Structure formats: structure tokens, C-alpha cells
Known about the structure:
By secondary structure, this protein is of the alpha+beta class. The chain has helices at about 5-10, 25-35, 180-195, and strands spanning about 45-50, 55-60, 60-65, 70-80, 85, 90-100, 105-110, 115-125, 130, 135-140, 150-160, 175-180. Helix 1 packs across helix 2.
Amino acid sequence: MTEYEIKEVIRKAKLLEPLDKPTAEKLELWNKHKLRFKHLPLDTIRITSPYGKRPPVTVNGVTKDKFHNGIDFGAKIPGKVGDPIYSVDDGIMRYVGFNADGYGKYTVIEHNGYCTFYAHLGIQELLINKSVKAGDLIGIMGSTGFSEKAHLHFGMCIGSYKKGFWENDATGKQVNGIDPTPLIKELIERQGKTHG
Ligand SMILES: [Zn+2]
């Protein structure tokens, strides 16, 4: 199968929007695993800042102008911390950590061929190197790190956690990062069909 044909298969399956400069490796992974989330990361899906380029963001007088490597989801009750956060797929919790100027308390889960990360958490489940199932509680929404109010920053990267998971290009975009929005939309549509 040529790269173009693989791209067509994926496009037809409506699993993702066009990737910028897709590599054959990325496309093969999407195709092979037919990447799909099994559970939404939150009970209420409300996007407050989409994936991609965005204007500079200022929090407490500090401005950052970076590619947005994930989707921000607002709290069920805007600004209120405490919403439960779930793993979107079966996997292994690889990282539970803290970054004061960035992601705050964040957790990384490695799935079959890709990783997801959940940032600005208030409380993190300490399941390091333990298996988690799709829908398992992995944390509680907070507003830690570079965050103005309660939200979840949710991102994903292709590949295993060890393989340069955090590598950024000149714009601050993760080299292996991809937009999780199509997968969130696909799951919402699929659930809608199941529940009538
Ligand atoms: Zn974010």
C-alpha cells in the first residue's frame, strides 16, 4: 500500500483530519491500530481551547506564545475543580509528575502505539507502571501549573513513551504529537449511535 492509499483509507474511515506532513510511520500506526478511544476523558465534553496554533496566553502576568499541544476541556461547572478524569483507553500509567510553569500535575498513559497525557490535575492517582483500563479514574481536575482556571489539558503522541515523547520542533509543537479531536468526536458519535 502506498502512503497515498493509506491516507485515503484513513480519510474514508473518518478517523482523523489531514495531518500536516504525515510520515509513513505515523500513517501506518493509525491504520494498523485503527486508533480509537474507548472512553471519554471527562463526563462533560466542553472544549475551551482547541489543539493548534493560538494567540499568546497570559496567566498571572506571564505570557507564553506556543503551539497548543492538546485540547483544553473546561469543568462541568465552569471554573470549579473536582471533575473526575478517566483514561481514554487501556494502557500503562508511565508518568505521574509535576511541572510548576507548565503542565502542573500531569500524568502520561501509554497505550497500544500511542500515549495520552492529562495536565493541570488537582489530584493524581498514583498508579505508576500499573495497568489501567479505559474509563478508570486516573485523576481529578484541578488548575495546577500554567493555568488560569479549572481545566483539563489533554494531548496525545504517537509512539511509546520512552521514544522522545516530549521532543518539540522550533514552534514548540511536539514532533510526534497529533490532534486528538477527531478521536474524541468519533467516540461521541459512536456512543450516540449505541445509546440511540
Ligand atoms: Zn492546554
